[in-house]
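*** Query protein ***
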Amino acid sequence: MKSVVKNNKAKRGKSQIAAEQIIKTQKEAASYANVNTRTIRRWVKNGMPRTEQGFYIKGMLDFYKKNEGTAPDEDKLRQQKAEASLKETKFQLAELELKFKQGEFLKREDYEKQQIAKIIAVKRALLVLGRKIAPRVAKLRNIRGVQKIINEEVRNIIERFAR
């Protein structure tokens, strides 16, 4: 008989605790979670568990509020994706730092200076092209010879630029 009394006390204790975790109306649930009733409806639509009677569970309300309304499975998946993305980003950063230390990369300013210097060199070579070619072309009377001289000079400029 004593064991029956103990079991009844245990059952009452659990049911009282369970009763304290239950919120019966949507308005009370919204008030408890400090959100709008529309938010509660959205959480339910997203899969927030409720009791068989449709009552709200405080622990679930706390969880959904903490996780911004996402279901546990979605939250875990989002966290795993974020962790994988973070690891990939850290790997890429370490790889770039290694290449930079090995001298495979230049600072942006240095690269830009090199490119500007190349462009200026091409510009000067093209501006001088007329003075260089004119005396040679004046001696020739055929068009193919003129084309050949111009093509040679342009190739020279391109080769210098490529270096």
Q: What stands out?
A: DSSP finds seven helices and two strands in the chain. The beta strands are 22-23, 56-57. The first strand starts at residue 22 and ends at 23. Residues 75-105 form one domain.
